[in-house]
Specification:
GO molecular function: DNA binding; DNA-binding transcription factor activity
InterPro entries: GAF-like_dom_sf, HTH_MetabolicPath_Reg, Tscrpt_reg_IclR_C, Tscrpt_reg_IclR_N, WH-like_DNA-bd_sf, WH_DNA-bd_sf
Protein name: Transcriptional regulator
CATH architecture of the largest domain: 2-Layer Sandwich
Pfam family, one: HTH_IclR
Radius of gyration: 22 Å
Number of strands: 10
Order of helices and strands: HHHEEHHEEEHHHEHHEEEEH
Structural class: alpha+beta
GO biological process, one term: negative regulation of DNA-templated transcription
Number of domains: 2
Shape: globular
CATH superfamily of the largest domain: GAF domain
CATH class of the largest domain: Alpha Beta
CATH topology of the largest domain: Beta-Lactamase
Strand content: 15-25%
Number of helices: 11
Distance between the termini: 44 Å
């Protein structure tokens, strides 16, 4: 069963997300109360504790609350675990501005990828992906990650596919490696799986019927040739879900995956290729910068 939600924790998270994105104007107690739908008395005790910890700061004149100085230290500590992310941030902003797509950064684990940063565009498509959202590397998902994850991980992923599609995916992965980016398209089974996942998460339910439906949709998606295409016809139009490219560490492991999520409007194959090449050029530059930074650090 999924973990039970914690409304108190969710309120604190929502408050910090809002303060981080509201441009520095801060919030009064009354505004916090309205935003979180919590009585002002409850807000006072929560805000007092956050002030004590230094996570919030109160303007004595305007009586507004702002992000506090203690978060700077926490941010430095967190940034130390994601050196590639620190380098990638400006490139993500530039990519989003140049392409009109959302730019999402993922860290990569053994069996899942996790959203660690994103730059939103008013032109991009798809649903917002909160920081911390995880995506499993379970076929057919994860193909654009295992393309650069090393031979063993790639072969394990391919082995989980049905025999009749395994070589097609192997060829598509090789093509993605050669061009430096992978393309995922919007297909009906994928959209239905996303909707089903939202239903399961929101209702916090599991059932045999839902599991059977998810498996049926997964099987249908695996056998769709356009789900993870080996190539694109420049004169055709495509509904693109995402375009992915890796930032590689000095040892050639994946430091980050950068993903562009473009407009939901159909794109020509030529336009998809252009966007993919822009992304791949940026990730190659970030990989080189990460390698240079690694060489410049003193040996332990």
């Amino acid at each position: 069963m999924p973990p039970r939600p914690s409304p108190q924790t969710e309120r604190v998270v929502n408050l910090f997300e809002h303060l981080a994105g509201e441009g520095g104007d801060g919030l009064t107690v009354a505004q916090v109360s309205r935003y979180l739908s919590v009585h002002k008395a409850s807000c006072h005790s929560m805000l007092a504790e956050l002030l004590r910890a230094g996570w919030l700061l109160r303007d004595p004149v305007r009586k507004t609350y702002h992000l506090g100085p203690a978060l700077v230290r926490l941010g430095r500590e967190a940034a130390g675990h994601y050196p590639a992310l620190v380098l990638a941030r400006s490139a993500m902003i530039e990519l989003s501005a140049a392409t009109g797509a959302h730019c999402v950064a993922f860290s990569v684990g053994d069996d899942h990828s996790t959203v660690v940063d994103q730059v939103r565009s008013r032109l991009g498509g798809g649903h917002p992906m909160p920081i911390g959202t995880q995506f499993p590397h379970r076929p057919p998902y994860g193909a654009s990650t295992v393309a650069w994850a090393g031979v063993n991980a790639r072969e394990r992923w391919l082995a989980a596919l049905p025999d009749d599609v395994r070589e097609r995916y192997r060829d598509a992965i090789a093509a993605a490696q050669q061009r430096g980016y992978a393309v995922g398209l919007h297909l009906l089974p994928d959209l239905r799986l996303q909707e089903l996942a939202l239903i399961v998460r929101s209702a916090e339910v599991r059932s045999t019927r839902l599991s059977e439906l998810a498996q049926a949709l997964t099987d249908e998606l695996i056998h769709q040739e356009q789900w993870f295409p080996a190539g694109l016809d420049k004169d055709r139009t495509y509904e693109v879900s995402h375009i992915d490219s890796p930032v590689l560490a000095a040892d050639s492991t994946i430091a980050l995956i950068l993903s562009l999520v473009p407009s939901p409007e159909p794109m020509s194959g030529a336009d998809v290729t252009r966007m993919g090449e822009q992304l791949a050029a940026a990730t190659r530059g970030l990989s080189a910068a990460l390698a240079d930074e690694s060489l410049s650090q003193p040996a332990p």
